Amino acid sequence: MINILKKQECSGCYACTNICPKECIRMKSDNEGFWYPDIDKDTCINCELCEKVCPVINNPNKAENKINAYACKNKDNKSRNASSSGGVFSLLCDYVISKNGVVFGVAFDENFNVKHMHAETLEECEKFKGSKYIQSKIGSTYKQAKEFLDNKRIVLFSGTQCQIKGLNLYLRKSYDNLISIDIVCHGVPSPKVFRMYKEILVEKYKSDIKEVRFRDKVNGWKEFSCIAEFKNGKMYSKSAKEDIYMKGFLKDLYLRPSCYECKAKNFLSASDISLADYWGVENIHPEFDDDKGTSLVLVNSRKGEVMFRKISSSMDIIKTNLDYAISCNPCIVGPVKYNPKREQFFSEYNKKNIEKTIQKYTKVTPIQKIKGKIFGILRYINK
């Protein structure tokens, strides 16, 4: 029986609920809005399957393979502009759907809750485009994916590093018809904080939300904007540096406890391909950067290499230096640092206006401003 003693010991991947033969594990939200397994001990048969598939305490088997890194851009500018980075995920979807396959990804539901869902048409895959900076509910999608795999359908399953690690442990064997894609993750913010943020926007704009875009490129890829469109025709638009929700996220203020000690990074998820933003691409491949989005594609397995070749004709590609790419996006191999203000934030966030609470705990001190200016000068000199 799985026993969570510390909240850092659970990534909320749902592998335990999917594997339980008696269906006696439910996921329940805590006061921070994150879900954890709750076991009906009267029904549990102590089969220990839940422990065997937990990505915090286990690692899936994987063949050793050289990891190759590529800077990539979808040649279709319309598709790339609608994506968060270089539009590579859309090409993967196109290929899998063309082979009568199934794509699992993350989408907003009708209430803008973030969930894992599957798609069997290109039209259905549209809902997966764009970043969602909230932890998604896996639900029963591991089970659904296994059913499609056992029925010989090609399955592309995308998720954060811990979710893909959970999937590979849940399956307990290798499937030739599975393509697992992990999205390099900064950490997952509290769904409850996001819900409170949405409520403030709805109140301010006197209308329900029609669409949310966290990574709109209207001001460029590097200075991406957060946009909410409302049913009354109004629009909210701020840069990531100005938007209050993104401020807290980028300061690591309300991430899931396990994110600060993530056990799925450094290629431990056993994914076939890892996708990330290629921050810093302008310094190593200046001719390649147009500020419209560049994907960093890490090919981690032979199966991933085959898939990459299948879609390569639809991309502009440069093979790049893996160590440099990691230096610009260290979340590939390690977790973010714990924000010491996190506990104070969660002790107050229910009592006050969430906007003011985030502002309070993300306020930049004079010393931090000075450090920031020095860092900016040094970075300019290095360039």
Automatic annotation (TrEMBL):
Keywords: Iron, Iron-sulfur, Metal-binding
Molecular functions (GO terms): iron-sulfur cluster binding; metal ion binding
Pfam families for this protein: Fer4_7, FrhB_FdhB_C
Record carries keyword Glycoprotein: no
InterPro entries, sorted: 4Fe4S_Fe-S-bd (IPR017896), 4Fe4S_Fe_S_CS (IPR017900), FrhB_FdhB_C (IPR007525), Polyferredoxin-like_ET (IPR052977)
UniProt cross-references to PANTHER family, sorted A to Z: POLYFERREDOXIN PROTEIN FWDF, PTHR43193
Descriptive protein name: 4Fe-4S dicluster domain-containing protein
Organism: Clostridium chromiireducens
